[in-house]
UniProtKB/TrEMBL annotation:
Belongs to the NAD(P)-dependent epimerase/dehydratase family. This is UDP-glucose 4-epimerase. Its EC number is 5.1.3.2. It is an enzyme of class 5 (isomerase). Keywords: Carbohydrate metabolism, Isomerase, NAD. The keyword Isomerase applies. It comes from Shimia aestuarii. GO terms for biological process: galactose catabolic process via UDP-galactose, Leloir pathway. It catalyses: UDP-alpha-D-glucose = UDP-alpha-D-galactose. Homodimer. It comes from the Bacteria. Its cofactor is NAD(+). Residues 5-253 form the NAD-dependent epimerase/dehydratase domain.
Length: 328
């Protein structure tokens, strides 16, 4: 019988793509999601168990039912701006929820844990390329909550032998080329889907958050990685744990940074449409530049991004944008 993997947040953007990749790799992904930001329609590749991370009894029952060989933990609140206004939500859901999940994992005797972290844990580093050894000084509550969970995993490894792979994502974009699943947030806060909304008239204009940053064109720079490449790394991370290679942290980015204005230019070229935009003030919590300087995932996991060019990411997002959506 195929091995089960418990995927928290499997009804969300990245989690649903991970479920597809796991299924293709021969695992059965079991989605555990409270649907606070996810979509039941996105659960297509394995069983669905609706539940909250803070509901320990429900988690214990799900572990007992499926006896997963590993956990992939995606479920989290992930909006930088919101985290600045409502930090308590982030500490309760992300940190409290993860503590409940990690304790349930250990209690069930499962020892392999793949965790979705973020480059937002690094904070501002004055134009350096970020590798895994850079000190973590998050400047928003979202990044602080993820860093706290990374620390938690280390403590649970010392005490209980919980082996973990931590992935620090840069900016995830694009979607399944077959458009079975895609990026669909309500409310939407991410640059590329908001821009596609502006392009086809679903919103009036994109607002550029800040044009006075210390970058060549004054707008923030990010390292965009295709969601399908990102989830491929997770399957490699799972195999890494199954091969007993020990706990490890990997950045997932391409090492190429693009400014907001450059993303607008590429979107215009890919869609062959005008991008209505206006210039606005900075958004609290935004770092100037977040670009990966690491080749560790390539060297150690054998990870090779295949779809992470800006044009492919925008084209895949555009295809989903025109054809795909979920209903509650
Ligand atoms: N931006 C705009 N206008 C918008 C939305 C975004 O100018 O309407 C800008 C932002 O200021 C930023 C860039 O576009 O410079 C990307 O913003 P996103 O909101 O798409 O992504 P973030 O960089 O804020 O955050 C994302 C994820 C986080 C993750 C982070 C790591 O949402 O979970 O990437 O960089 F931590």
């Amino acid at each position: 019988m195929a091995d089960h993997v418990l995927v928290t947040g499997g009804a969300g953007y990245i989690g649903s793509h991970a479920c597809k990749a796991l299924r293709q790799a021969g695992y059965v992904p079991v989605t555990y999601d409270n649907l606070c930001t996810g979509w039941e329609d996105a659960v297509k590749f394995g069983p669905f168990e609706r539940g909250d991370l803070l509901d320990r009894a429900r988690l214990d029952a799900v572990f007992a039912k499926y006896q997963p060989v590993a956990v992939m933990h995606f479920a989290a609140l992930s909006q930088v701006g919101e985290s600045m206004k409502e930090p308590g939500k982030y500490w309760l859901n992300n940190v409290g929820g993860s503590l409940s999940l990690i304790e349930a994992t250990v209690a069930a005797g499962c020892r392999n844990f793949v965790f979705s972290s973020t480059c937002a844990t690094y904070g501002e580093h004055d134009n350096v390329l970020l590798d895994e050894s850079v000190e973590q000084h998050p400047i928003n509550a979202y990044g602080s909550s993820k860093r706290a969970i990374e620390d938690m995993l280390k403590d649970f490894e010392s005490a209980f032998g919980l082996r973990h792979v931590i992935f620090r994502y840069f900016n995830v974009a694009g979607g399944d080329p077959e458009a079975e699943v895609g990026e669909f947030h309500r409310p939407e806060t991410h640059l590329i889907p908001l821009m596609l909304d502006a392009i086809d008239g679903k919103r009036e204009a994109l607002t550029i958050f800040g044009t006075d940053y210390d970058t060549p064109d004054g707008t923030c720079i990010r390292d965009y990685v295709h969601v399908c490449d990102l989830v491929d790394a997770h399957v490699l991370g799972l195999k890494w744990l199954e091969d007993d290679k020990g706990s490890r942290v990997f950045n997932l980015g391409t090492g190429s940074g693009f400014s907001v204005r450059e993303v607008i230019d590429h979107s215009r070229a890919v869609t062959n449409r005008d991008v209505p935009y206006e210039e606005g003030p900075r958004r609290p919590g935004d770092c100037t530049k977040l670009v990966s300087g690491s080749t560790r995932a390539g060297k150690e996991l054998g990870w090779t991004p295949k779809r992470s060019t800006l044009d492919i990411m925008i084209a895949d997002a555009w295809r989903w944008h025109q054809n795909g959506h979920y209903d509650k």
